Amino acid sequence: MKLKHYIFIGALLIIIPFLIAQVAKEKAALQEPAPKAAVQPKPVNPVLAEVLRDYEEQLKVLAEASGTPGAAIAVVQDSTIVFLKGMGRRSADAPQPVDVNTLFRIASVSKCFASFLTGILVQDSVLHWNDRIVDRLPHFALNSPEETQKLTIRHVLSHTTGLPYHTYTNMVEEGKPLDSMLSWLKRIPLSSPVGETYSYQNVAYSLIGRVIESATGKSYEDEMRQRVFGPLHMLTASIDYAGIQQSTNLAKPHKRRGNQWVPAAITSTYYNVAPAGGVNASISDMAQWMIALLGNRPDVISRETLKQLYSPEVKARSKNRNYGRMHRLSDSFYGLGWRVIYYPDDTLLYHGGYVNGYRSEVAVNPKDHLAVCILANAPGDLADNGIPLFFNLLQPKRDSVRAWEEKERKLRQQILVP
């Protein structure tokens, strides 16, 4: 056989399989169903949109009056982010604006994340709310051996450890290691029996981090990243000093000097008690988390677990007095990492935080399926009043907001039913 025949046959062996593959591909394409139309976004509630327009204008007035250098605000309705804004500047001495991805320290709102992570582990049967601390940490001790045996995860997360108010918080600010501070708790006489009295803690609250590490074999920080930040797409969130140092879009903290706010250094304090105050996040991160707090991420945390976090455990005074001025308070409690405020016809869950010149507030209204968060790079009226301001503006229009929502719900049902 001549060389040209071999070449011809070789070419056919290459071309024929290619042609067969192309024909098969075209046939498959013809049989493939047409792509589905994109899911239509949920219509914007026009009454709520009006409230949000008023809210934005009044936030600007409040920010200017308080002189707050920069802040970021999010409002979530059910699974929809309806308001997401950055305001002001990252630093009083620089022009860069705060945007929705600017990183802040969220201070004691980190406690809500600690209980959130614990709830995930409880629903996965890794932990249980009434697990005794000594069963996970055999060497841990309070001043009383009898009370040590009673202490559970539930007591830690509800601040009912029996320890005096803010035990060793001064040591936290001095940068002492967590394990040392936990070992020193046995020196402190208890102010009440375990489980009876609310007494806010940072060191004792951070026991939950060591419990989680004992139960999972992983660091608390890794568990938070893998079970919370990652699944919720909290893309800029972190839980250590390095995380905030490495950010290129960072709000600087501020302190008061005379009549003006001046930038301050970011310190490493409270990262030594990460469950109590170590989370860094942007308002975009917080909005994704609030969607989960409203029960819309059952793949991460169930509504039943959220109810457990939000249930009152012990009577506790409302920390931010502006929530009491908003409407007449019926009562106030602390749940598992959350403050629980009862009004005559409503319930609000909230937590606030302050550390190193940063201020944070988050609130959840389960009845109206709304959540609001404010992050600020200075304390003051904007952070203190920003969330009560929203609910005050909403209050006279709540019935109209609900009526529109009910009308839309019935309309969707009619469309779905043939």
Automatic annotation (TrEMBL):
Transmembrane segments: 6-24
SUPFAM superfamilies in UniProt: beta-lactamase/transpeptidase-like
Segments forming domain Beta-lactamase-related: 63-382
UniProt keyword annotation of Secreted present: no
UniProt organism field: Chryseolinea serpens
Keyword Calcium among UniProt keywords: no
Protein known as: Beta-lactamase class C
Keyword field: Membrane, Transmembrane, Transmembrane helix
Matches recorded under PANTHER family: BETA-LACTAMASE-RELATED DOMAIN-CONTAINING PROTEIN, D-ALANYL-D-ALANINE-CARBOXYPEPTIDASE/ENDOPEPTIDASE AMPH
Short name of one Pfam family: Beta-lactamase
InterPro entries assigned: AmpC-like (IPR050491), Beta-lactam-related (IPR001466), Beta-lactam/transpept-like (IPR012338)
